[in-house]
Amino acid sequence: MKSLMDHARSFATTHVADPRNAAAFEALEAGQSPEALFVTCSDSRVVPTLITGARPGELFELRTAGNVVPPYPAGRRAGLTGEPAPGHHPVSEAATIEYAVCVLGVRSIVVCGHSHCGAVGALVRREDLSAVPAVRDWLEHSVAPDDALRSLAPSSPDVAEAVQTHVLAQVERLRAYPCVRERVAEGSLTLHAWYYEVHTGAVTAHRPSDTGRPAFAPL
Question: How many CB atoms lie under 10 A from the CB of residue 52?
Fold first, then answer.
């Protein structure tokens, strides 16, 4: 922790105040206008700004266990006012997505899975998660019993095929968000599925395939 604290302590004077960076940081006071929403796992090995080279203000991030995109909350529709329907519960992840699309006007959403993902690995290996009930409940709630991911076998330690299948499912779930569906239909928003290898740094993106299996190729 000491090294993290030392860096935080000196960040303003050694980095922000640097004449090469000062103007860019000062401009952030006026607001943000990110190019994309980057949805990825909470895993510490995945660093979106490092992978993409984004500077402050260029990337809006949503990080969840297993880069899960929850279903759009029942009883809510974008643009409607009034009391929520019975049983409606606010969902932080949905709020982040809606804010990025409707308020910030991002033009791209990237859902990025990664190799050796613990959440996806736990699902395909059918691990006992009773010791971490919050994790168990999050995954059980987020991945439907009939989801294709649950039928896959852990064919390799990096669970690449499972992660890629899971990423595509999250992209499809995004399409059910009213704000996303509307912007995609009008051509002002594009959705991207990426896969990142934590041990090589390689990034691949989904391409249409006739095989029925995920087809990811270099960017």
Answer: 17
